[in-house]
Amino acid sequence: MASTPVQGAQVVARIAGLLRLVGCSAEGMPLAVLVRESGLTRPTVHRLLASLAAEGLLDHDPVTGNWVLGPEILLMGSVASARFPMEDIARPSLRRLAQATGESAFFSIRRGNETVCLLREEGTFPVRSFVLHEGVRFPLGVASAGTAILSFLPTDEQEELLGRWPEHAGAFAANHTVDLVRKNLARTRLAGYSVNPGLVLEGSWGMGAAVFDRSGRPAWALSLTGIEPRFKPERQEELGGLLMAEAHRITQQLGGSADGGRRTR
Predict the structure, then answer these.
(1) Secondary structure (3-state) at 202
(2) Which residues does UniProt call coiled coil (predicted)?
(3) What is the pLDDT of residue 82?
(4) Same structural domain, 148 and 255
(5) Which residues contact 33 (CB under 8 A, 6 or more apart)?
(6) Same domain, 23 and 149
(7) Cβ neighbours of 180 (radius 10 Å)
(8) What are the beta bridge partners of residue 67?
(9) Are residues 29 and 92 in the same domain?
């Protein structure tokens, strides 16, 4: 009897993990990639996918062969959006940023030790970076949004992640060394905004600013991405100022305060 909750929790964790993987892209994921990324056996993954499809939570695209999110997810998301009206709150800021800078603007949320891109607004500049789009997840501290958020978390929470950085950052650890991440965090706390100098993908730069909740904790982030020539040092201060102004605007709309972030400096 005592083992039953553990077994049940393990199944739930596996299902949640597969749903998150499939949800990383509108195109979904093929079975082979889901097996590799989940670390589960192929029969286990296939059985779970089939069960999720039977409940309408996933679909199998007959053209691409990918597994994609199903109609029940759309219905759940529609209901949940009433509790999290981030489209109404963040979209105007994204539009202003995209129009003022020409770059693509994004709104991301912290989920545990990750950031997840929720919203995107394309800029007018014809050459773009396609590293970031809705549903993309990065380890906290990786990319501009994750760096902005981690920078203003309490020191003990930062150190907990930095103490196991290779495990936490995974494939991103090679370019995001602990020493480099620490320097980026310190630089972000000082400037108020983060700069990602092509660490995720060479030539693709990004900048971010944290959005704070009512307790003063960084819970979301605004970011801009584009090609390296658009993020020269002489332009970074301008872009950073625009990001921080919009981040402050959203923080106020959410009833939040950046005071908690300042106390971590």
Answers:
(1) coil
(2) none
(3) 62
(4) yes
(5) 21
(6) no
(7) 12
(8) 29, 60
(9) no
Q: What length does the chain have? A: 265
Cα angle value 118/63/61 (rounded, 5°): 50
135 and 89 part of one domain: yes
Q: In the structure encoding, which two tokens stand for residue 224, read together?
A: 């801009």
Q: 52: which residues sit within 8 A by CB, 6+ positions away? A: 15, 18, 19, 58, 70
CA 200 to chain centre: 13
CA angle 187, 189, 190 (to 5 degrees): 65
Residue 157 sits in a domain whose CATH number is 3.30.450.40
Cα distance between residue 111 and residue 106, in whole Å: 16
User: CA angle, corner 259, sides to 98 and 104, nearest 5?
Assistant: 10
Q: Taking the model in full, what pTM does it have?
A: 0.73
Domain tally for the chain? 2
Position 9 scores a pLDDT of: 85
Tokens of 16: 């949640």
In this structure, the answer to whether residues 130 and 41 fall within a common structural domain is no
2-27 confidence digits (pLDDT tens): 444 446 788 898 998 899 888 877 78
211 with 114, same domain: the answer is: yes
Q: Phi then psi for 57, rounded to 5 degrees?
A: -85, -25
Contact between 58 and 52 under an 8 Å Cβ cutoff? The reply is yes
- Determine contact, residues 151/189, Cβ cutoff 8 Å: yes
Question: Whole-angstrom Cα distance, residue 96 to residue 116?
Answer: 21
The domain of 35 spans 4-78
Query: What are 162's two structure tokens?
Result: 């930095």
Kindly state the helix (H) or strand (E) to which residue 245 belongs, with its residue range: helix 233-253
Q: Which two tokens stand for residue 171?
A: 């494939």
Gap between the Cα atoms of 167 and 225, Å rounded: 26
